[in-house]
């Protein structure tokens, strides 16, 4: 039985860890060829310099790079890795070129690379306390990185013929529930994810005539290294349980399954949607 993404090729930033890794693995399981990109092929882990008592271990269960895990399961021809710095125009452009040279085309672009630098602060910082360097780096990676990934991904989709009987392409950006609502002490992160939501909607308008779907996923708190200070203490875990009506933090694969939907024929008439995958966080 063919997978829901059979014959498609996906370019994924931030594919080495967390949600990006989960999406890459899910896409491969659904039959897609996957070009994994990141600064390093190996999964990131929790910090070990300041261990928190009773911390949940959300480290990758293996140090195997994502593309190697896919190749082992589905064959060498189904995955590849190339280093991409999403803040660099030339790096992203080269990454797209590598993907097309390897697999012949590009059908799905997933902009998953992101950072939450405020999670490393010892306490929430208001705007007047936030270092300008944090603002610059988060907007550079979380907002400009999405822009550049879309810019070069969309250009490639317009250059090539669509798959037989298919639309021309699928773009999926990773935003956050913080693109809708705010929590204390993360002004840069909220701004960057709000930008992703609005970029997604605007691009959906521009590329609808080309039959390119542009949507974004807005996860709640998910168990990855990015949210380590949330899942790292009993008090934070209790807050997370109460904040998500489904209880607790989400798994990266929950978001990955939604990413499969948005890249499949099941979403044939879906574009411009910021889709919450949040265990009910936004309906509290």
TrEMBL record:
<dbReference type="Pfam" id="PF00106">
    <property type="entry name" value="adh_short"/>
</dbReference>
<dbReference type="InterPro" id="IPR020904">
    <property type="entry name" value="Sc_DH/Rdtase_CS"/>
</dbReference>
<dbReference type="GO" id="GO:0016616">
    <property type="term" value="F:oxidoreductase activity, acting on the CH-OH group of donors, NAD or NADP as acceptor"/>
</dbReference>
<keyword id="KW-1133">Transmembrane helix</keyword>
<keyword id="KW-0472">Membrane</keyword>
<keyword id="KW-0521">NADP</keyword>
<dbReference type="Pfam" id="PF13561">
    <property type="entry name" value="adh_short_C2"/>
</dbReference>
<feature type="transmembrane region" description="Helical">
    <location>
        <begin position="170"/>
        <end position="191"/>
    </location>
</feature>
<dbReference type="InterPro" id="IPR002347">
    <property type="entry name" value="SDR_fam"/>
</dbReference>
<keyword id="KW-0812">Transmembrane</keyword>
<comment type="similarity">
    <text>Belongs to the short-chain dehydrogenases/reductases (SDR) family.</text>
</comment>
<dbReference type="InterPro" id="IPR036291">
    <property type="entry name" value="NAD(P)-bd_dom_sf"/>
</dbReference>
<protein>
    <submittedName>
        <fullName>NAD(P)-binding protein</fullName>
    </submittedName>
</protein>
């Amino acid at each position: 039985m063919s997978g829901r993404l059979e014959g498609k090729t996906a370019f994924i930033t931030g594919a080495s860890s967390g949600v990006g890794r989960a999406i890459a693995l899910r896409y491969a399981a659904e039959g897609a060829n996957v070009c994994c990109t990141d600064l390093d092929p190996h999964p990131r882990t929790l910090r070990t310099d300041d261990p928190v008592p009773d911390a949940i271990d959300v480290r990758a269960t293996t140090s195997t790079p994502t593309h190697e895990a896919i190749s082992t399961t589905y064959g060498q021809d189904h995955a590849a890795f190339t280093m991409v710095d999403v803040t660099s125009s030339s790096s992203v452009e080269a990454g797209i070129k590598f993907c097309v040279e390897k697999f012949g085309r590009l059908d799905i672009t997933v902009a998953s690379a992101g950072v939450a630098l405020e999670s490393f602060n010892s306490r929430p910082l208001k705007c007047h306390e936030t270092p300008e360097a944090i603002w610059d780096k988060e907007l550079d990676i979380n907002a400009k990185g999405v822009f550049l990934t879309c810019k070069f991904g969309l250009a490639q989709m317009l250059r090539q013929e669509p798959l037989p009987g298919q639309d021309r392409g699928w773009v999926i950006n990773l935003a956050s529930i913080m693109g809708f609502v705010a929590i204390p002490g993360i002004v840069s992160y909220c701004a960057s994810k709000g930008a992703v939501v609005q970029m997604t909607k605007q691009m959906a308008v521009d590329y609808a005539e080309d039959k390119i779907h542009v949507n974004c996923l807005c996860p709640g708190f998910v168990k990855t290294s990015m949210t380590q200070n949330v899942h790292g203490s009993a008090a934070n875990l209790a807050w997370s349980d109460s904040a998500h009506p489904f209880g607790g933090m989400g798994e990266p694969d929950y978001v990955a399954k939604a990413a499969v939907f948005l890249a499949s024929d099941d979403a044939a008439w879906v574009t411009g949607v910021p889709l919450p995958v949040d265990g009910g966080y936004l309906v509290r």
